[in-house]
Amino acid sequence: SHAAAAVTHDSGVMHMAAARGLRVVALFGSTSPVLGFAPSGPGHHVLGRELPCRPCTVHGREVCPLGHFKCMRELAVGTVWEAAQDLLRG
């Protein structure tokens, strides 16, 4: 509750942080925020790669069915860092 922001994947922690009023950097891999699971409220950054194979499931996978897991491997650390910095500045 004392954090300024949260960086998390598409999970319950993401929803709890948003419910507490934290701004969230939400990482979406095999899932997609268009399925209705984005953090609620304003001021969040939702990050994910737009790929033809995504979303491959509604609730995520531990293993990529195509074997490449590009949805997470191509989500650059610098992109996440910049989004977090933007939330902290704002």
Number of helices: 3
Beta-strand portion reads: 5-15%
Q: Overall 3D geometry?
A: globular
Structural class: alpha/beta
Query: Main sheet, how many strands, which sense, barrel?
Result: 3 strands, parallel
Computed CA radius of gyration, to the nearest angstrom? 13 Å
Low-confidence stretches: none
Percentage of residues assigned to helices: 25-40%
Number of strands: 3
Mean pLDDT score: 92
N-to-C CA distance: 18 Å
Order of helices and strands: EHEEHH
Order of strands across the widest beta sheet? 1-2-3
Could you explain the architecture of this structure?
With 90 residues, this protein is an alpha/beta fold. Helix content is 28%, strand content 14%. It contains three helices and three strands, in the order βαββαα. It has a three-stranded parallel beta sheet with strand order 1-2-3, sandwiched between helices.
Give a concise summary.
By secondary structure, this protein is an alpha/beta fold. The protein contains 3 helices and 3 strands; from the N terminus they run E-H-E-E-H-H. A 3-stranded parallel sheet has the order 1-2-3, with helices on both faces.
